[in-house]
């Protein structure tokens, strides 16, 4: 049976990106980059918006506000290109042009449930906030991992990650600090029907 990881990279205030900021907020250090390079083989799950963004980067489109990719960003995109990817979308057309990407038009929750039951190895989301939210609500997420970079992007932050999420209890199973500044926390999530001390809804 496969394991499903929801994996976010965020600012301290829970944004997925920030206008005018480079990838990793420009704060990736050697320990963090080495850890990224040590990650096991994974099949990435994403929606159409993330696919369009990341496949554009793979095709050479540079993020707004940058003249070119930094080497760390290029390596990150190259790793994604080499990896297996499953894209859930009713708007994209097959065949997908990004290497190693498969389009699935079926309901994402049902498809991921089948992938977990019938597969092996690690499944991991990348970006795709609404997909992550749906998989979490359905109780399919085994591990919830966040790497928080030491910035607050209150003025420029884009894509607030946790808006619309249910209440979730998190049991910590891993934590680590990279380069003396970037914090990884990993949890086993449990979706709550109501706050622990509240009345049932």
User: How many individual domains?
Assistant: 1
CATH topology: Dihydrofolate Reductase, subunit A
* Strand line-up across the major sheet: 5-4-3-6-1-7-10-9
- The chain-level mean pLDDT equals 90
Structural class, from helix and strand content? Answer: alpha/beta
Low-confidence stretches: none
CATH H-level superfamily: Dihydrofolate Reductase, subunit A
Strand content: 25-35%
Q: Just name the CATH architecture.
A: 3-Layer(aba) Sandwich
If you had to describe this structure to a student in words, what would you say it looks like?
The chain is of the alpha/beta class and 201 residues long. The chain has a single domain, classed as Dihydrofolate Reductase, subunit A (3-Layer(aba) Sandwich), CATH 3.40.430.10. The chain contains five helices and ten strands. The protein has helices at 30-37, 48-58, 71-82, 108-118, 129-137, and strands at 3-11, 15-18, 42-47, 84-88, 101-104, 122-125, 143-149, 157-160, 168-178, 182-191. It has an eight-stranded mixed sheet, sandwiched between helices. A two-stranded antiparallel ribbon has the order 2-8. A hairpin with a 3-residue loop joins strand 9 and strand 10 (182-191). Helix 2 packs across helix 3 (71-82). The protein starts with a strand and ends in a 10-residue tail after the last strand. The mean pLDDT is 90.
């Amino acid at each position: 049976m496969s394991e499903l990881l929801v994996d976010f990279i965020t600012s301290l205030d829970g944004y997925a990106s920030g206008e005018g900021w480079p990838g990793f907020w420009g704060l990736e250090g050697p320990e963090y980059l080495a850890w990224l390079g040590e990650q096991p083989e994974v099949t990435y799950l994403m929606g159409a918006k993330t696919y369009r963004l990341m496949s554009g980067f793979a095709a050479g489109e540079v993020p707004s506000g940058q003249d070119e990719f930094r080497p760390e960003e290029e390596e990150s995109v190259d790793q994604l290109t080499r990896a297996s990817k499953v894209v859930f979308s009713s708007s994209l057309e097959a065949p997908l042009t990004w290497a190693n990407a498969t389009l699935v038009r079926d309901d994402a929750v049902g498809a991921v449930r089948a992938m977990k039951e019938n597969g092996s190895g690690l499944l991991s989301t990348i970006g795709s906030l609404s997909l992550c939210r749906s998989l979490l609500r359905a109780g399919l997420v085994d591990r919830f991992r966040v790497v928080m970079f030491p910035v607050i992007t209150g003025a420029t932050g884009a894509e607030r990650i946790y808006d619309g999420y249910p209440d979730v209890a998190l049991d910590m199973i891993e934590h680590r600090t990279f380069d003396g500044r970037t914090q990884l926390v990993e949890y086993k999530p449990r979706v709550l029907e109501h706050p622990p001390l509240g009345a049932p809804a």
